[in-house]
Amino acid sequence: MTGPNEPIASRRREEPSFARSLQLQLSVWWALAMREALTRFGRHNVGFLWLFFEPMSFTIGITLVWTLLKMTHGSSIHIASFALTGYSSIMLWRNPATRISHSITVNMALLYHRNVRALDIVIARILLEIAAISASFFGLAILFVFFEFCEPPEDIPLLVAGWSLLALFATGLSLCIAALTEKTELFDRIWHTITYLLFPFSGAGTLLDWLPPGARKALLYLPFAHGVEMIRHGYYGSSIRTHEDWQYLLYVSLVLVFVGIAAIESVAREVEPE
Fold first, then answer.
1. Fewer Cβ close by (within 10 Å): the C or N end of the chain?
2. Burial of 265 (0-12, 13-18, 19+ CB in 10 A)
């Protein structure tokens, strides 16, 4: 305990350590994510568990349709695993970027809390979406394998690496979309149209190796196509031929993250209270 005659400098409050700052930051993101989940789904019935069931139901529905239509694409690949890796990958980058619109504007009141910034609101919502879709993907993969709907993955570390890189891309893309939708409402409408137009080129319904070389080369300019190919490479191993470039996906994702953070900080200067 300091005495009354000790120098003022010695009585100053110590700066928090990195570990303490990180713990506080993670606590803020967790609290914001839980608030978002409860706000969206409430506490009744299955409540926020629907956050996980929603992507699961979509993937299961696609799998059932493909199975009933016998859409094997002339390949011996199991339909369940092909639908799982394809449509879960789409949701991983599409859902966060679609649901991030106006996230700062609708949560303006939270900015009056000392430890909450505009970037925290955006990141918490992105992490919530990625966590839900990831839980859905890996949970369904375990169930499908357990009930012998499909074969187990051949290279789990590669699959996880591909999923992680695609999640990083989703984070960067969502940060940029969040900033743009705060700047102009028109972009929100345009972005929804863009996502539907990109759907046929996502790689969900086909392997790039099945396409003509010209079409394959064009699609490889889309970063998320590399993520889907990498995930399927990890799942099927040497039984299929893939064309991913993980470095390209990584570099594009990092650029999007840095640009997105800078854009969010620019928006924050306009909306955050003094």
1. C
2. middle
Task: Quote the pLDDT of residue 11.
Answer: 42
Give how far Cα 158 sits from Cα of 32, 97, 172, 234, Å. 31, 25, 21, 5
For residue 7, being part of any structural domain is answered with no
Residue 147 burial (10 A CB sphere; 0-12, 13-18, 19+)? exposed
CA neighbours closer than 13 Å in the CB half-sphere of residue 230? 24
In this prediction, residue 239 carries a pLDDT of 87
- pTM comes to 0.86
Q: So what's the pLDDT on residue 9?
A: 45
Residue with tokens 């978002």: 36
Q: What is the extent of the structural domain holding 47?
A: 18-271
In Å, how far are 175, 179, 190 from 105, measured between CA atoms? Answer: 14, 11, 19
Domain count across the chain? 1
Tell me if 257 sits within 8 A of 251, measured CB to CB: no
- Does residue 4 fall inside a structural domain? no
What is the C-alpha to C-alpha distance for residues 133 and 111, in angstroms, rounded to an integer? Answer: 27
What does the pLDDT read at residue 122?
94
Residue 127 lies in a domain: yes
53: left (phi over 0), alpha (psi -120 to 50) or beta: alpha
**Do 59 and 38 meet the contact criterion of CB atoms below 8 Å apart?**
no
Q: Are 44 and 35 in contact (CB under 8 A)?
A: no
Contact 110, 116 (CB under 8 A): yes
Q: Which residues of the chain have pLDDT under 70?
A: 1-16, 41-51, 69-76, 272-274
